[in-house]
Amino acid sequence: MKAENALLGTAGFAGFLAVCEAVPRIGIVSEDYFPPVTRIADALVTELGDQAFWTALGDTLTGWALGLAIAVTAGILTGVLIAVTPHLREATASTIEFLRPIPSVALIPLAVLLYGTELQSVLLLVVYASFWQVLIQTLYGVQDVDPVADETARSYGLGTWARVRHVLWPTALPYVMTGVRLAAAVALILAVTAELVIGAPGLGRRIAVAQSSQAVPEMYALVVVTGVLGLLINVGARRVERRALAWHQSVRGEVAV
After folding, report:
1. Where are the beta strands (DSSP E) in the chain?
2. Using an 8 Å Cβ cutoff, are 60 and 192 in contact?
3. Higher confidence at residue 89 or residue 133?
4. pTM of this prediction?
5. What is the CB-side half-sphere exposure of residue 156 using CA atoms within 13 A?
6. What are the φ and ψ backbone dihedral angles of 102, each rounded to 5 degrees?
């Protein structure tokens, strides 16, 4: 079944590439705006041989990794703190619901005002967007803790942090890993967006420069790179999730199937 799915996926992707090659060739779309896949592939090969491309890729990955690490750490710690502090969940609920829907891109003027086009601007947007993914999932996981198990732990004299370690954390971990996986994708989106709009160093700024200089094949080649990067991050996040939850019935059942 897996081999068949892989074969179908490969065939579907090959068909997609064939359509993208044919559409500009037969004149449905002008090659000035959407070049054939072969021209994009040539531009991609040229980009891969340019040291400036690898520097930009490193800048994007740096902003993504640092922002994600900060957001995950802060989201988990804040979620656990809210969970173990009496009445703090009720006291912070309205604030969380007010701040969470604010789009990160709305903070771009603030980021530029504070940090200009430096890495800190990217981190501000990445951390703000990714933090809520982890925090909300952590809070959901805490709510799913079995009250009987929690009361049993209390009756055995377990302290607050012992209950967090042995009762709360195993229950919340599947939710936390979902939040981390979502945050990883969101962090990449915001990192590239910040570079594209603000002009911070990275792939986003390189895309903007290619677009403004009418280097259309190069622009599409860079867009393809960001897409592949997102795919790799998603696959990597899923593998980390499976390893972290190897003991959980959802992953064990998935492996068994």
Report:
1. none
2. yes
3. 133
4. 0.87
5. 10
6. -65, 120
